[in-house]
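Retro notes
What went well: the complex prediction finally ran end to end.
Inputs used:
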Amino acid sequence: DAGVIQSPRHEVTEMGQEVTLRCKPISGHDYLFWYRQTMMRGLELLIYFNNNVPIDDSGMPEDRFSAKMPNASFSTLKIQPSEPRDSAVYFCASSLGGTAASTDTQYFGPGTRLTVL
Amino acid sequence: DAKTTQPTSMDCAEGRAANLPCNHSTISGNEYVYWYRQIHSQGPQYIIHGLKNNETNEMASLIITEDRKSSTLILPHATLRDTAVYYCIVRPSTGNQFYFGTGTSLTVIP
């Protein structure tokens, strides 16, 4: 398997523009996670899905952020409108899930480095 | 959820064993300890996990104390490529969230 795939790897945009980040989880994984990493706040969980359904979005910073998972092989994280403080690295991760610790291991993608000017 | 405490940074000589400690004094009986690392500009990488027995894989060994209040990740022969931030995480007994703290920044010195 190619692992978790994210696109784009780098995104530079101007304040006020819409930004869409994409993620393809590992095939067969039922859980998908979106994280954001900044120097100030470290690695934060934004939202996660189980079988394409959002389970916990309490980490989503505000209404400008939205995430969808239309099918088992694709998810998007959208920021509209974007602001300079959204500049960060956004990671997607997936796991098999379930109750066993071995299946809970999360595998991370390479991340998208977002810069909002 | 159990919190973890790790030293902010550590150095290790190349070829020597790197021992990274983690305190998780409030861990519950059914909560697992996971270790991840993040090499600069890459996504976090899974290393190992355990419940109460010591564990070993091709990357590292995990030693968990008998009272489970602390653990140590051991990289037996550190290389320069092991320079990274190492995160100790306690998997909550309910839910699937992992909470990453600040981790330990390990620098392997030639």
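What we learned: The mean pLDDT of chain A is 93.
What to try next: split runs per interface for comparison.
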